Each structure stands twice: as structure tokens, then as C-alpha cells.
Amino acid sequence: MTTLAPDLAERFRTDGFAFPVNALTPAEAEQALAGCHTYLRTVSAAGGALARYAAFPKIHLVASWADRIVHHPAILDAVEALLGPELLVWSTNLFVRPAHSGSSLAWHQDAVYLGLDGYQQHAARVWVALTDTTVANGTMRYARGSHLGGALPHRFSGSGLEDIMRGEEIAVDIDEAATVDVILNAGQCSVHHLAMAHCSGPNHTDAGRFNFAIDYVTPRVRPTAGEDSALLVRGADPGAFLPESRPASDFDQAALREFYAAVARRQKRIDQTVLGRGGKPGGDPARDGAQDRAQDPA
């Protein structure tokens, strides 16, 4: 009773990714995209921490459209097939590549920024397409099997503004013959290992690309240092994470209190991770969204 076929589960283990996984129906994807647009307008008008953390890392704590996605049975069934029956949502991220955006992101791994122990076997990122994702609109590219080498060294490829905006790049050559473009219809998703090397390109189309990413972990994952929190979505064991609660409604007072506490806690940990790598505090946990900061081009 899972949307992830056995061959895709094997591909996740060997290749480091699996797609396409059928998740949201077309109607659900359309509804989620509309909710996303409303959410972006609301947080932009509110300003402050809501605007600063609009794209990461706890969208699901204040937005009902995001809460519905992280609890979607088809997605949870797929992740359970990979990680087992005890599942927590550690982070949610919104990646927007506006129409005719020249932004691109260098080859990198998510794992080096997250400060998590146990992610190698007990975590996965689900990348949900709220719009179609194509080469033309700058979809992700995976480097097949790159997760097998664990966390790789990263560096900036140059000192120019464009190099800095593209982000840190894996300091190892990528075999272009092993790369795969993540082509999805709205409502479908891909699942990848947190050590999967990936990049993305510019959007040459007339429409924005919207993707919602969910980091699922099991109780066997632990923060490398400091307190952290997560939302239990299947099973009963929160592991080392402080428990989070679902929002009763969009931006209700209890949800806002939980959101502010959770993002402050997470940013403190991310800063520790970034400083440990020789970076500067205030680093972006959703580094894929560095240029694609949450905005609503509609």
C-alpha cells in the first residue's frame, strides 16, 4: 500500500534518488499552489521573522496547505517504504524560481549544512512539484550515486558576485554522464538522499517554478549539537527532538508561538554548523532558495 514501487526503492538505495512518485492529485496540487500564493502574500505583508523565514524551515507549522502536504498519505507511504514506520518532519522548504530568472545553483549536497547525525540511513528529502518542473524552468539535476561518497568538501568556484550567488560548489568533478534531470508533473515528487549531489539552472519560461521540499527523519537521527524540534507524523517516538504541533488554522496564535520558537532554535543550530565549517552566522538552511527567496510573482 505504497506509491513507491519496489524498483524505485532499490533505485533510491543505489542511485540516491527515486522519481517520479505520484503524490498529490492535479486538483490537490492546484489547491496547494493557490495556498502557497496566499501564504507568500501574507508573510510578505507581515514582515519580520515570518517574512525572513518564509521559505524555510518550518512552513508547515503556520500554513495549512503545507501541513496537508507533509501529512499526505501517498507521500508518507512512500517515505515509510524507504525509512520505516516512525517518521518526523524535520524541515520544510519552499523553492521558487521566478519566470525568466537567471539564477542557478552550483553542484552541492544538503547534508553538509544540516548538522544531523544518522542522516545517511535514516533521512530523505521529498521534493514536491506544485508546478511542472522541466529543464526549461530550471529543475534540479542529480548526480547518480554521488550519495555513496558521504559528505564531500565544498568551495566557492570563484570570488565574483555570480560565483558567490551560485553558492558553494562540490570540490570534486561531477561525471556529467551520470546526471539526471528531475522532470515532474505538478503533484508528483522526487525523493533524494541528503548527501545526493544536485544543482539547478535558470528559468527561461514565462511562469514561475514552485517546489515544496520536506525533510523526513526517523527517531534514529539526532542533532549534532544543541536542541532541535520536529513534527511527528507517523509512529509514536519523537527521538531526540522536541515535539511540535500541527496548526489549528493558518497563523493562529499558538502556531505562531511555536513557529517563532522553532525557527530561533533551528537558526541557532544552523549557525553552529556553518561556523563549524568556517562560514558566517546567519547561514541559510535552505541554500537552494538563496536566490529564490520566497516571493510571489503572480
UniProtKB/TrEMBL annotation:
Keyword match Oxidoreductase: yes
Region annotation (Disordered) ranges: 270-298
InterPro entries xrefs: Phytyl_CoA_dOase-like
Organism domain of life: Bacteria
Keywords: Dioxygenase, Oxidoreductase
Basic and acidic residues: compositionally biased ranges: 285-298
One Pfam family named in its UniProt record: PhyH
GO molecular function terms attached to this record: 2-oxoglutarate-dependent dioxygenase activity; iron ion binding
Keyword Oxidoreductase assigned: yes
The protein's name in its UniProt record: Phytanoyl-CoA dioxygenase
Organism: Streptomyces sparsogenes DSM 40356
